[in-house]
Amino acid sequence: SCTAFPALINLAATWDKEMSLLYGNSIGEEARYRKKDILLGPGVNICRTPYNGRNFEYMGEDPLLAAKTSSQYIKGVQSQGVMASVKHFALNNQETDRHHISSDADERTINEIYFPAFKAAVDAGVATVMSSYNLVNNVHAAENEWLLKETLKGRWGFEGFVMSDWTSTYSTLGCVRSGLDLEMPQGFCMNYENIKPLIDNGVVREADIDDKVQTILENLIAYGFLDRPQLDTTIKEDNPYSREVAYKLSCESAVLLKN
Fold this sequence. Notes:
By secondary structure, the protein is of the alpha/beta class. 43% of the residues lie in helices and 8% in strands.
């Protein structure tokens, strides 16, 4: 069995940071009794078009609300020994032709609207960041040095690892140079056959690959994944705490609109 929680847009509608923390705690417990190491969330992309079929799993159109809500959610999840993965970095605000479309914006707009929730997640200690499918100013997000290396790891000081969204990688060299650490769901671009010639020819340094491996291992060790079983048998599968949180959130997320 699994608790049917309200969507993250409902969580944002509560305007309640304490509720966000409780929700994160509960989701973390749900993950632990299923032996899960990483939760692929929260999604914090800004609602920009009603045609985006994934708006329900994000936190609305207000950058500050999304930042405050998601940071507490992340703290809750990770307090249970489960990594959170904030996504999709960045400007992934619609799904149509997502492998090829470019989200173009000036730097001020990006920093004021699209970055705050991600920056808040980093400040909250999020373990992983997931890149997005789309291009950002004509460079794919998973291969975007300005996004991943200069901003996320450089200016923001993110020390976790960056994973790609599933099959959102497009070239080996681009991924290796950009700051991407882990290609998901497998190494289509970042594999031995593709990377070894780049090292042999001096295009890529072996130390760059070592750094990615070290980053991943350091975070796995920090979370104790190599030292303990992830399955927590003290948590009930039919969890009364989860049911209580889900019900309370459902009640508090109701919004009355008046024309």
